[in-house]
Amino acid sequence: MLDFVHPLSDDFENIYFVEGERKGYYPFSHSLLIGNYLIDTGISGTRLKKLEQQFQINTTILSHWHEDHISGNKFLPNSSFLCHKDDKPPIEDIEKMFPYYRVEGTEAGREFRTLFEMFGMSNTKITKTINDNEIINIDDQLKLKVVHTPGHTAGHCAVYEINSKIAFFGDIDLTRFPYYANIDSDLIDYENSIDRLKNLDFEIAVLGHRDPVFGGNNIKIELDKFKSIIFKRDERILSNLSEQNPISPIDLKGKNLIYRRYSYANFEVISELVMIEKHFEKLLKNNLIVIKDNGYILN
Ligand SMILES: [Zn+2]
User: Fold this and answer.
1) Euclidean distance between the first and the last CA atom of the chain, given in angstroms as a whole number
2) What are residue 95's phi and psi, to 5 degrees?
3) Alpha-carbon dihedral of residues 83, 175, 285, 86, nearest 10 degrees?
4) Which of 35, 100, 178, 281 is deepest in the core (most CB within 10 A)?
């Protein structure tokens, strides 16, 4: 067995956690392998080639459009590719990722392009789109169910195998860093998606960027913890608002309100600003802030 491919269950021998390079830290990610079906391709090109040789992957489901989950598509020439319709455009045309991240024409955009070149990223033709609650029959025993979980991206999907209750949560990744910094992110959707996963019954959750979590109760606890990080960000942003002096998201740019320190400053300052905007949208919808003049004040 390949040293990065780990069986997840004694009862279901064809289900594996496939560990991404560098423990799945960005720009890599983890995958789930179920029979000949692979979820996501960010484990690294070297690992994918080895995996393909041993398991003959014929179908790949992409949890969402982010580069760190699709970078290895080109190493699977015999596979079809499935994703939700809302995430299809930037997968079929990776140039669209630049405006999605709002980095077109910026230094961050140039750095981002360097990363693309490093991975030899290319467009992927989506064979078929997948829908919420769709069931995909792999064989007599293995049946995948799609759970549309928007927020991180508009078409982000989790999937789970019905009999084993082994799930792939993608980038509802239960790390300390919920991310919603594309123009197609939505914070209220993100929170609702976390709640939806919490209301389902899982045994094992495989995650984009950390080791799997085992046990239904542990998964629920981790989902709550993950959501509480978003609430802490709400509070930090609200503490910068007053009842008198209107401010806008741009006034909070570059203040480390979400990133404690910037590792890739050019990109992360933009990401942080987009995420702050998502908080403002949510706080406005929830009537915690109101518009005054050209900015926002506490309600
Ligand atoms: Zn992502």
Assistant:
1) 59
2) -60, -25
3) -10
4) 178
- All residues with CB under 5 Å from ion ligand 1: 66, 171
64 C-alpha to center of ligand 1: Å?
A: 7
pTM of this structure: 0.96
CATH number (3.60.15.10, 3.40.50.300, 3.40.50.880, 1.10.3720.10) of 5-230 reads 3.60.15.10
Cα–Cα distance between 193 and 191 in angstroms, integer? 5
CA of 245 to the centre of ligand 1 (A): 35
Judge whether 39 and 142 are in contact, CB under 8 Å. no
What digits encode the pLDDT tens for the residues 210-252? 999 999 999 999 999 999 999 999 999 999 999 999 999 999 9
Residue 217 burial class via C-beta count within 10 angstroms: exposed 0-12, middle 13-18, buried 19 and up: exposed
The conformation of residue 95, written as its DSSP 8-state character, comes to G
User: With bands split at pLDDT 50, 70 and 90, how would you rate the model's confidence at 92?
Assistant: very high
Which amino acid, 52?
A: E
Strand order in the sheet with 135-137: 135-137, 143-148, 157-161, 166-170, 204-207, 213-214
Q: Which residue has the tokens 């082994």?
A: 166
* 229/250 Cα distance (integer angstroms): 22
Residue 69 pLDDT exceeds 90: yes
